[in-house]
Amino acid sequence: GTSGGADRYEITQREAAVEILPGIRTPMWTYGGTFPGPTIESRRGRPITVRHRNELPVPTVVHLHGGRTPASADGYPTDLVLPEGWPDAARTGHGGHGMGGHGMHDPRAAVTRLTRDYAFPLDQRPTLLWYHDHRMDFTGPAIWRGLAGLHIVRDDAEDALGLPAGRRELPLMIADRVFAADGRLDYPALDPSLRERPGVRGAFLAGVLGDVILVNGAPWPVHEVDAARYRLRILNASNARHYELEAVTGDGRRLDLVQVGADQGLLAAPVTHRLLPMAPAERYDVIVDFAGVPVGGRVRVVNRLGSGRTRDVMAFRVARKDTDKSRIPRVLSRDLPAWRRSDAARVREISFRAGRMHGGHGWLIDGKPFDPARTDVTVRLGEVEVWRLVADVHHPVHLHLVGFRVLARGGGRPLPHDAGLKDTVSLRPGESVEIITRFDGYRGRFLFHCHNAEHEDMGMMANLEIV
Ligand code: C2O
Ligand code: CU
Ligand code: CU
């Protein structure tokens, strides 16, 4: 970093051969040559600038997911960074793999060539963010090929809580992939033959599933731990796979997963789970205590929704006894917004459903596929709103810029894992979920969308204009 001004980072987006499967090189699109990309750690309220240089063969755009970021740096899907030889005319999406945006032109697109400086104020609650590609119609394949990384924001108050830290704090980016025999990544939407493999789902309409589960870029890793508490900061970075995670000991006991944080930072108080459902893009901050596991014993992290090899996610091997000075305070934070229904200026109902578009099948919000030239929802800066989100099938719905709270699910109370401040909420089939938020921070053009990456590419995204 530099003194006085913002901390500066530089990331070169480039093709690289990454060792994911032991002894095999997988050609990937990377942030800086690795998968995941470099983890950035920041302090709350301390602005940073990240210069992204695009040496990939395609346009890219970076979004900091969960970031409280002005529209100019939020990674709008047509604010592309063109690679050196890319023609100017192809400024916006042209309906590549998805069906959204056939030949659409976006008059507001802020296109640059080769590099772009993204300035992030990071004036927000500390939490685990992630950065990923957000190019219109191509987000699914771009993330799949490797364009994803973690970004942790911290502050003094959180540091002082005494949660497990240092090597006992583990960010875990979970993502599924499909590998061809030679180690290349296959995006099954583009290769129908792969759809026959168990665990793989290539049907583009439902979203792409892989048969290899990666954690921080390693297949089914085994991590050595002390017999002590660990803080697991879990991100579901999969394109479309849902998880129901549990931590199971060798003798079949399920360990408590004590949730201390959600997408947008610390809860007010811990919530204990045995089973943690995770939709794409959701983050959970959980404490697991390995103290009761004998040295040499294993704890498997299992996805109850998987089958065969996709049931396994990773394992911990307890390697040694050691002292543990960490704690889980009964009060974690006191700054969670407590918006009430009566604070809301209005209630909107917004539907997430399949439908017909461009003569084919697409995923639509309120009956329409994404169009960068159309404003879908206009809200006033500073106003509180309730949104009733209605789904046909599973849709993890994500709002840019703001965190929200879940008010109601299926007409009833929220579920235990809906606690805290979120930026992505999992709508289950046929369900309606009410969320409440205050649209504060910045004016401008933002997005909300389904974070099933294939649904997003097939049109399930809309413009949110804050005025
Ligand atoms: Cu993680 Cu608009 O996305
Ligand atoms: Cu986002
Ligand atoms: Cu969806």
UniProtKB/TrEMBL annotation:
Its EC number is 1.16.3.4. Gene3D superfamilies: Cupredoxins - blue copper proteins. It comes from the Bacteria. SUPFAM superfamilies: Cupredoxins. Residues 17-77, 362-464 form the Plastocyanin-like domain. InterPro entries: Cu-oxidase-like_N, Cu-oxidase_C, Cu-oxidase_fam, Cu_oxidase_Cu_BS, Cupredoxin, TAT_signal. The keyword Oxidoreductase applies. GO terms for molecular function: copper ion binding; oxidoreductase activity. PROSITE patterns: MULTICOPPER_OXIDASE2, TAT. It catalyses: 4 Cu(+) + O2 + 4 H(+) = 4 Cu(2+) + 2 H2O. Keywords: Metal-binding, Oxidoreductase. Monomer. Belongs to the multicopper oxidase family. This is Multicopper oxidase CueO. It comes from Actinomadura rubrisoli. The lineage of its organism: Bacteria, Bacillati, Actinomycetota, Actinomycetes, Streptosporangiales.
